[in-house]
Design goal:
The chain contains 13 helices and 17 strands. With 437 residues, the chain is of the alpha/beta class. The N and C termini lie far apart (53 Å).
């Protein structure tokens, strides 16, 4: 008996998904038992790259998720609505769901997974993070015996492409963004990518899986790359770094009033100076990579194409295949497979950014006066900020340019020092403040 799929959306990912399902030869044999039963589209007349029988197409998406013959609903439409409502309706109808929609999962995951657990169905989302890179199932299965310490990733191809070109060409952010939009690597509205929102969605999902707890998206600190300049890229290179937009989820012991060593998570997205020797430093262009560190495995890096029709569809169909395999072998049992389902209910405790301990890079523009560097050093010292280096690099717009790199420092202390420095008469501006790994 074939497993019947209801496909919602035949855009880039939906097209790739249909192409794999329609051409199972040479792939896992179980794919031959998976059949596209209904396909939801916006327009019946639109020309498509994949040939689908007209009788399969419908603009009535709700009729697909309520069709008794459909076993697995595959949501690859994107956007928040109607995707969220259709996923919930499919679950209510007892259907398993595969989705590539990181925005819906990061915002409504608690609602969706609670409903799925109650209905006894699977919601799988390998394609929601990292495109074709297998990372969701490894976190749930292969790495499940490890105590995960951290997940650090380059999870947005658009920003990685822009920063790579800024590094290789010396161009400014706005110019390279405009070019990336012309080439199709950046959306007409690039906000979700360049402001870090897309990466925040993805690290919220990865953190939830790695640390077996729910994550509130509003608790994820998010900072994009708009403020990164060609000057910062150049200074980073001279100091032995590259700049990447990194997403972090890490266990940390945080001193809070009631418990001196409470374990909390840091979940954050921001541009970071990364040593050139770091495993993620060489991940360039539109590629993604995710570094997982755990006990006892140590470090594992997953890397590959982070988007695109083929890679993302590969992840979608792998989820369909996993569900079909479980359904085929489960018989009459309605119990969910513990390595495929998502049952945790509690929310992770997220540490405030003020408690983060990290190194910082800061670039100052100052009036060219004697003693400026000394005043900067004094202000940092007043707030227990130890400096690794402080260098006057030259002049920009008739102002002296000073670059500072700190040792590890509590973020709250560093911010207090900056507040004091801004009051100094010789300080014109602080164009860049970046964290250093």
């Amino acid at each position: 008996m074939a497993f019947k799929v209801g496909l919602l959306g035949v855009g880039t990912v939906g097209t790739g998904t249909a192409q794999i399902l329609l051409n199972p030869e040479g792939r896992q044999p179980l794919l031959q038992e998976i059949e596209i039963h209904r396909v939801g589209v916006r327009s019946l007349d639109k020309p498509r790259e994949v040939k689908l029988p007209l009788e399969l197409l419908t603009t009535d998406l709700e009729s697909i998720v309520t069709d008794p013959a459909v076993d697995i609903v595959v949501e690859v439409m994107g956007g928040l609505e109607p995707a969220r409502s259709l996923i919930l309706k499919a679950i209510a109808q007892g259907k398993h769901v595969v989705t590539a929609n990181k925005a819906v999962i990061s915002r409504y995951g608690a609602e969706i997974f609670t409903a799925a657990e109650e209905a006894g169905v699977y919601v799988l989302l390998e394609a929601a993070v990292g495109g074709g890179i297998p990372v969701i199932q490894p976190l749930k299965q292969s790495l499940g015996v490890n105590r995960i310490q951290s997940v650090i990733g380059i999870v947005n191809g658009t920003t990685n492409y822009i920063l790579t070109r800024m590094q290789t060409e010396g161009g400014e952010f706005s110019d390279i963004l405009a070019d990336a939009q012309k080439l199709g690597y950046a959306e007409a509205d690039p906000t979700a990518d360049v402001d870090g929102l897309d990466a925040a969605d993805k690290i919220a999902i990865l953190a939830s899986l790695a640390f077996a707890g729910r994550i509130k998206l509003e608790d994820v600190y998010c900072e994009g790359i708009r403020q990164v300049s060609a000057a910062d890229i150049s200074y980073a290179q001279k100091l032995g770094f590259v700049i990447k937009l990194l997403a972090f989820a890490k266990r940390e012991k945080i001193a809070v009033s009631a418990t001196p060593d409470a374990e909390m998570l840091q979940v954050r997205v921001h541009p970071t100076l990364l040593p050139k020797t770091h495993p993620l430093a060489s991940i360039n262009g539109v590629y993604n990579a995710i570094l997982v560190e755990g006990d006892p495995i140590g470090q594992v890096v997953f890397s590959g194409p982070g988007a695109g029709s083929g890679p993302t569809a590969s992840a979608v169909v792998s989820d369909i295949l996993n569900i079909a395999a479980v359904l085929k072998t489960a018989g009459e049992s309605h119990r969910l497979h513990p390595l495929l389902s998502c049952a945790h209910q509690h929310y992770c405790a997220i540490a405030p950014m003020s408690e983060l301990v990290t190194r910082f890079y800061a670039r100052f523009l100052t009036k060219d006066r004697p003693g400026v560097i000394g005043h900067l050093g004094t202000s940092f010292g007043n707030h227990n900020v130890s400096l690794e280096s402080i260098v006057q690099t030259g002049f920009r717009d008739d102002l002296a340019e000073i670059v500072v790199v700190t040792h590890d420092v509590r973020e709250g202390n560093f911010r207090q020092a900056l507040d004091e420095i801004r009051t100094l008469e010789a300080i014109d501006s602080i164009p860049s403040i970046l964290r250093v790994l």
